[in-house]
Design goal:
By secondary structure, the protein is mainly α. The chain has helices spanning about 1-10, 15-40, 45-75, 75-80, 105-115, 120-130, 135-160; strands at about 85, 90-95, 95.
Length: about 160
């Protein structure tokens, strides 16, 4: 499924279609991670491992693309704040959730962060390929956090000096 989506350059146009793909994508990445560990333990050939690693990397990268697309389609934080909130902090409009089922405040924040930092996403993807590893959402979020912290320190240094 992910190969077809990547080949055709097609992702669904609605969050309601993307959210299940995100869950499926995460399950696929988890499967590949487990498979790679088992392959290492069973001392499979390098060729077998490389084929599986390539498939795993494609699934992991597609998952990041899906998350970014979700971030594009969600209401902005400003739009969300204009409405009330449910008990779990999810925005509501006229008694209805603004965020679709399966998307809470945390997931929406992560998806928007991934969408807003395509350069970092591309860098994480490239680094993961070089290291023969998988590009993950956590790696992207940690890199964004690091860049923000570094920018704050630079600003503080200029303000103090």
């Amino acid at each position: 499924m992910f190969n077809l989506i990547k080949k055709e350059g097609w992702l669904p146009a609605t969050v309601d279609e993307l959210v299940p793909m995100s869950f499926i994508g995460q399950a696929a990445v988890n499967f590949f991670q487990t498979k790679l560990k088992v392959m290492t333990q069973l001392k499979m050939t390098d060729e077998q491992r490389k084929v599986t690693l390539r498939d795993a990397q494609e699934a992991a990268e597609m998952l990041l693309d899906i998350e970014a697309r979700i971030g594009e389609l969600l209401p902005t934080p400003l739009e969300a704040r204009a409405f009330g909130q449910t008990k779990d902090g999810s925005p509501m409009k006229a008694g209805r959730r603004i965020l679709p089922e399966g998307v809470d405040h945390k997931k929406s924040y992560e998806a928007r962060t991934i969408k807003n930092h395509p350069g970092i996403v591309d860098r994480i993807k490239a680094q993961a390929r070089e290291r023969e590893d998988l590009a993950t959402k956590m790696a992207v979020l940690n890199a964004v956090s690091y860049e923000r912290k570094k920018a704050r320190q630079t600003l503080q240094g200029k303000a103090g000096g």
